[in-house]
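so the lab meeting is tmrw and i was supposed to have these ready like two days ago... anyway. pasting both below. for each one the top line is the aa sequence and the line under it is the structure tokens. i havent really looked at them closely yet so no promises
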Amino acid sequence: MSSELIEKLEPADREDINLYAPFYPPATREILPKALSLYKKGYLEGQRQIEGSDSITFVATWPVSRLPLDLTCCRIQFNGQAELSYQVTLQNSELVNYLIDVINAYKRSQAVDFPQPFYRKLLRISEQTQS
């Protein structure tokens, strides 16, 4: 379970932290070392909270690259069903930012889930509403 993974995260190397630090405001840099460590795992398991319904389990995976501006393809599968698989391409620094949000939310609620903006990007909701 990812809650155990998040609890046991060791901070990333100083060199990696220094590479990514300029991409984030000072307020989020406290969590950056653990978010980078989570990023280097290449996966996240959690549960998408659905208002008024049961949560849906998910597994997100991505290839790990060292550079913040490299593009990565994050794949996410819900309920272990291939037909519920989605993917989104984003910069590593953006994915790490979402992982910072995951860790912050976990500290508040003990739930492992991506933030709403991640799902909007994943499902391309903002692109559809602008049409």
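ok protien two:
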Amino acid sequence: MRELKDYVFITLGLISYSVAWAVFLLPYQITTGGTTGIGAIIYYATGFPIQWSYFIINAILMTFAIKILGPKFSIKTTYAIFMLTALLEFFQWLVKNPDGTFPQLLGPGQDTMACLIGSIMCGIGLGVTFTCNGSTGGTDIIAAIIHKYKDVALGRMVMLCDCLIISSCYVVFHDWRRVIFGFVTLFVMGYVIDYIVNGARQSVQFLIFSKEYDKIADRITRETHRGVTVLDGVGWYSQNHVKVLVVLAYKRQAIDIFRLVKDIDPHAFISQSSVIGVYGEGFDKLKVK
């Protein structure tokens, strides 16, 4: 069920990404990084469909990725590539005029607004896809292959590839304004992706002091499926022995924990703090060289 849920959300993310291209970016001739950006530049220059350029480039890259990185890397990426190709085809067909041109739904001269809306929707789509351990391929594959053999940060490699792709659109338009729009799109997409990915994984730590610690611990374990550690403590002023519950949970689970503690002991003392990262069972995997 968890895998099925991942594929459903990856599909929804790709729908957002495809709509952004068909409705906002392509009609206003805005590009960005990645193989989709390469496909857009080819489309602006020759009229060759963006989805087929995207598919062909990724098919070549995936051939190398399977051999070098192994099949596990490629399962969800392959699904995303095929699905995004189909969705780009569908939504372009849906919005195109009978003469094959794209309508500018925001009106002529609204390049800036189209750039912002399109990049936000692309960022949301990619953020949801990445959160579900998916990938749309492209520069991610190039970065992963180089990272395997060279000690280069993945993010830096992806950024370098994207900057080269966006800068190359000057060859088509001979207009630095288009290049600037491309970098704005890249920046907004990156910000939205970080916000979604980090927001989904942000964790909190609770310290709970209560005489009903056993009931609270039991309900937290049973209802939120989070681990609970019980520590022995001493109140220095009162010199009374107390039990302290330590709980690490996702931020989205905080309200549920507060509610169940209040149901059991309205007078409990609770401290909540944000933590930068939590690694281990039930959270992110620990990845250290």
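from a quick look at the 2nd one: The mean pLDDT is 84. The beta strands are 203-209, 228-234, 241-250, 269-275. will dig more after coffe
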